[in-house]
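Example record for the data management plan.
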Amino acid sequence: MFASAAQLLLTLAGVSLLFACLQANGAMEAAAQRALRLCRGRVALLPLVFFLVSALLAMVGPGAILSVALMAPLAMRTGVAAGIPAFLIALMIGNGANAGNLSPFSSIGVIVHGLLSRGGLGGQEFRVWFFHAAAHLAVAVAAYLLFGGLRLSWKAAAGETVETSPLTRAQAVSLAALLGWMSAVILFRWPLGWSALGTGTLLLLLGQASWRAAVRKMPWRVIALVVSISTAVGMLERAGGLNWFQVAVVRWATPETVHPLLAFLTGLISAYSSTSAVVLPAFLPMVPGLAARLPGTDPLALAISINIGSAMVDVSPLSTIGALCIAAAPEGVNKSQLFTRLTIWGFAMAVVAAAICYFGAPWFPA
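Corresponding structural encoding:
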């Protein structure tokens, strides 16, 4: 138990250090600015670009929250100036970041796939990520169609554009190191934690990022919380404490209804707590036991339902992602109205996630 916690700590610290270096020298922000310029002022493309860039940042970065923290000021300023509703911008950023959040290269993906591996569900990283991303993409497309995306002009906008400056040497070297690290992990199966720690340390030794800034940007509280909760859940499991919840779920669920039930429950809890630091470390270890108590239930499908349900509500302003979008809204945006709409949307997503998992569960198993 403590060996697995130490491995989780090493992996989280290594991945976090690498991306803290890219944040410290501005490499991630420079990449985001260049991606936003791809639409060349076409207003109707901007929400789609917001989604894509947020997804890419989360996919190769420190997860959804920090990706939204990076994207929200850029996207809100640019989008509102171009006449895009702030509500739509927030939905595209939030769902985009969550779509990339379970990538094997994301620090949050590392948490999820580590928990799944400990439960005997390793080797399914890309399948888990695919269905998670597909659910958020479907919701983002619906938001685009429902909340003004089709009414936006496809002509070039005269509004504010994103200004970019040339990449510094440190930013270019850091982005090249990131691509090299990802290639080594995919092609040569380098160990994720050790290789990320080595790459980040090399960047620091070469002077491509500030030691002090990189260490300060690492999510120490999240790392400590995830490791401590994972250890506590492991101790609880050894003591038999997880059986109570499993028995309670089995009393109410069948192999067909357990997927929407778990998605709904984790969604309600995640709406006012941390998805990656609390909900996932607490619920994912229960998957093997639940599957054993419900014959015919696939444990991988249960895990995917928990992932989708817990993340779909994260655009709520009671969650960090939604709060960051509201904080980044420029002058002229009615923040009270934006708060209300995001709150309604967030809690409604618990029901939507349950529906997605009910109909999608037959496709989840490997």
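Summary line stored alongside the record: The radius of gyration is 20 Å.
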